[in-house]
Amino acid sequence: MANHHQHQPTTDPHQRCEPESPMSLLPEDCIAAIISFTTPRDACRLSLVSSIFKSAAESDIVWECFLPHDYKSIISYSSSPPYLLSLPSKKELFLSLCDHMIMIDDGQTVFYMRKQSGKKYYVPRFFHSRHHPIWLMERD
Question: What is the pTM assigned to this prediction?
Fold first, then answer.
């Protein structure tokens, strides 16, 4: 009795040979939904598993979940250029928000995010005497 589920070698030398797994049978949007419950770091790691995981892990569905729910208003009330909202992917927007601090609240607060966790931070400026202490606050 022949096994019809055996992996057949590919004739294209440039195509990666990926063994089938139960997860590879899931639709890509289902895999993306699962990945969206992880962290940005995990999503990047999972993108290395297979081509379907790469596509799912880089989808806007996943990266929209890693962005703050109020990211549009944060950007619109910032002194940052409006190009941020026109970046080609949510992943690029996420990385940009992590790599560049944004001034908000008329320059009184700095907003930034952590790449590994996606946590957002607000740094209000409090000045007194010669010292410039910075207080980190995490807001929802």
Answer: 0.71
